[in-house]
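Continuing the batch. This is chain 6 of the set; chains 1 through 5 are on the previous pages. Same settings as before, nothing changed between runs. Recording input and output for traceability.
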Amino acid sequence: MSYTPTSQQEKPSIFQELGEENEEWRSPGDFYVEPDNVTRGLTISLHDVAPPPPGDAFKGLPDMDFYREPDAVQKGVTLDSSNEALSSFFCHQHVECGMFFEQASIVRAPILSRFSNPDWPPRAPTDASFNFALTTLYVPSREPWTIGNLLLDFFAVEVVSSLSKVNRNKFAFKVDVFQNYTMCTMKVKVCHQEDGQFAIEFQRRQGDSIAFNNVFNKAAQFLKSHGLSDVSSEARSLVDLSPPPLPIQLASIVDETALTALLDLATLTGSPSLQAEAASALAEIAEDDAQCVLLCTEHALQDVMKLFHTSAPEVDYPAARLTHLLARRQEAAPHFAQQGFLPAMVEKIRATTTCMPARDQMACALSAAVQCQSLMALPHSVAFAQTLRECINEMTACGKGNDIVVQNLRSAQTVLSSI
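Output for chain 6:
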């Protein structure tokens, strides 16, 4: 029989040292995750620091802030159709109750946010311990600004996305990408290597990893099909990680219990991640005309409107697309008018936190929903018309909306004035 001294306590295991709330428990196999508990800064007496010179181009302390960013950063990039080579076009789509303007292609980024001849990527780090991520494309080129513009074109045309930051000095930008209503935030940056070789690194900052993988594969194929035939990567061969489609007998049936569970998740305003999953699933259900009718009820639309209370892009876009699909249905028209749904849609369009893809879809939904209404169904039409007018003025003056948004809002205003 062995004897263990009771006075000497055993050293706790690593699982005991790590509490359930510890950050290291989160996705141990995800190599692209970044911890959120990073704190950077300095505590310096105000007597030891001279005031910043007027017109200083950097934020923070003028000489001691090592994390400052130059003024070439453009945040909240809006989209414009002034570039002839990247012009957008509109299509008119008829619905049962009228006509609304729907976006046929994503409007391109303005000229100021695009890369030009003087722009040149920074050199890649030469530290021996530095390695690019596996999701890096290597491209030979003599004009790196064309690489940056091709990347902007890819995110503007091939996928639904919203640019939040473009840094021309660092040759990098940050973008929210939506694939099958699932969002992934990624950062794309270009670095200069030797002998005219450039590295395009894709980093997943947050969101769905499968969406990130599929977007990376699409970007590689897009660059190869647009003149960059020598694109290479250390990643494994392209693999489509999209989930397989459901069998026909299951895809055509929506269980009432499952639908109720999704609507319950949509009301959890304190959990944006759960609301995003619910909004994505509900939007996919609404894509089918037969199943969309099941959501055209008073109770369902009340739960859908709870999605508007959350200001998160991963929730806003699928919720806006879901609203757009429901607004086309004549069965949902009475519920849109009676529950204050239309003013809530206008306020969502006006919100500064609403991303551009969500604003586009919500404007299309508003135009379609108003055309399904009648004067008897709008008891507060005067107040709503005033709110709509203010929204149009804001979209036009502040530049928060593109032509698609403004035209759909004006279309709704015209219909509202005629009923």
